[in-house]
Amino acid sequence: MVYVGLLITLAGFVLSLLSLSLASSTGARMGMVLAGIAISLVGIIGVINQAYVKNAIWKR
Predict the structure, then answer these.
(1) Any idea what the Cα angle at residue 59 is, between residues 58 and 60, rounded to 5°?
(2) Residue 59: CA atoms inside 13 Å, Cβ hemisphere, count?
């Protein structure tokens, strides 16, 4: 699951980076960057964090 979370986070970063070449208007770029940030946060907080909490040291 950690690798899936890393891939989701990387996909969000790439979407934000690609907004420079895919969109010419400021509003479209802003929307794509916000979507990329949201995708990255889902990867970090939703997937990676849950994978580490599942095997947390205090649950032993």
Answers:
(1) 95
(2) 5
